[in-house]
Amino acid sequence: MTSMEEHPGAGREPGVPQPSEAELAEMDRDQLVKLGTKLDGVELVDYPDPWPVKGTRAEKRAERVVALWFTIAALAGLGFLVTICWPEWWEYKAPDTGEYEKYALYTPVLGFTLGLSILALGIGVLLYTKRFIPNELAVQERHDGDGKGSAEIDRKTIVAQLADAGNRSTIGRRSLVKRTAGLGAGVMGLGLVALPVASFIKNPWADPESKDNLAHTPWKPEHPGETVYLRRYTGKSDEVVLLRPEDLDAGAMETVYPFRESERGDHEALAAVFMRADAPVMLIRLRPEDAQRVVKRAGQEDFNFGDYYAYTKICSHVGCPTSLYEQRTNRILCPCHQSQFDALHYAKPIFGPATRALAQLPITVNDEGYFVARGDFIEPVGPAYWERKS
């Protein structure tokens, strides 16, 4: 019989017999677990079985309670998935229609179902841990490991300890808990990944001239000669307020959206533009003394109208809204990652992680005295993507 040598290894308790590789191969899991605890300097003071008598009514009742919470997680996750995908929920309904109340509940229902799914899944895991995982009491000596790597004996004993922990948790023989836990986690996970995965299915280049193409925005005229107005955002989707130069004081900034006369009275179209990430634009009126110091971008010298300049509100870093304008310094600020853009120097970045200037919208004033767009942006708005050339 081969004798065990006594020598300390990397992170091992000194004085513990070290078996040879042949002896390790012959050991069963229980022997490996005991050896692993000794090598780690661990002494199991108490390792009680939560259910010493198997199959009692109390044990089955505890298992059903855990399974119930996992089932609730699955049902709530299914509700979240149905709500986020069902068009009858998220399609806009005007306030004066009988279906507006259902539309107004869309966001609260999303929050409730997702929150309930996560909560129920967490409660199920906590209850299972409390009712079925042994509450061991162990004492371990501390050592620094000498900075050495793990030997074969360490790897084998650790694997055995992990397998033993799984066995003692009794999860292997509780099919009801496993099925409901898998169902709850799976449905919730499906709901969380459905939206981002769906975004990869749609081809953004299917129609090169569409406003849904990444190279265009809702500011693009839908037919030759169409007038696209600058519309003030009032908080009411069906309220149309067009802007004139006299509506802005010197040094002011206004958030504007595109508007077409064909959309007037169409509640769905009027509201849809506010949901477009590439639609919001900052209309800035510079102070006269600041306007004299403007540096314009090559090829965009006529994009402004006097002291009025229009820049996309979508940051060129990761797409956050650059919603802050500092009148004194003429800086446009992004609150997400602190990028700053110089409004006097074609909105080029001067601080923070952004590396490209904000896209500028060409504007003018029509015969009626309203601000209108002279066309779409000449470059994509927002952050970079693979096919972007600007």
Describe the structure.
A hairpin with a 5-residue loop joins β13 and β14. Strands 8-7-6-5-14-13 form a six-stranded antiparallel β-sheet, with no helix packed on it. A four-stranded antiparallel β-sheet has the order 9-10-11-12, with no helix packed on it. A two-stranded antiparallel ribbon has the order 1-2. The N terminus is likely disordered. α2 packs across α7, α3 packs antiparallel against α6 and α3 packs parallel to α8. The chain has 390 residues and is an alpha+beta fold. It contains ten helices and 14 strands. It has two domains: 145 residues; 146 residues, Rieske Iron-sulfur Protein (3-layer Sandwich).
Keywords:
390 residues, Rieske Iron-sulfur Protein, alpha+beta, single chain
Number of domains: 2
Secondary-structure content class: alpha+beta
Extended strand count: 14
- Overall, the morphology is elongated
**Percentage of residues in helical conformation:** 25-40%
Largest sheet: 6 strands, antiparallel
CATH topology of the largest domain: Rieske Iron-sulfur Protein
Tell me the Rg in angstroms: 32 Å
Following the backbone from N to C, one meets helices and strands in this order, namely EEHHEHHHHEHHEEHEHEEEEEEE
Q: Outline the low-pLDDT stretches.
A: 1-11
Spatial strand order of the main sheet: 8-7-6-5-14-13
Would you identify the CATH H-level superfamily of the largest domain? Rieske [2Fe-2S] iron-sulphur domain
Distance between the termini: 75 Å
Mean model confidence by pLDDT = 82
Helix count, DSSP H or I runs of 4 or more residues: 10
Identify the CATH architecture of the largest domain.
3-layer Sandwich
Biased composition (Basic and acidic residues): 1-10
Membrane topology: Multi-pass membrane protein
Region (Disordered): 1-21
Domain Rieske: 278-372
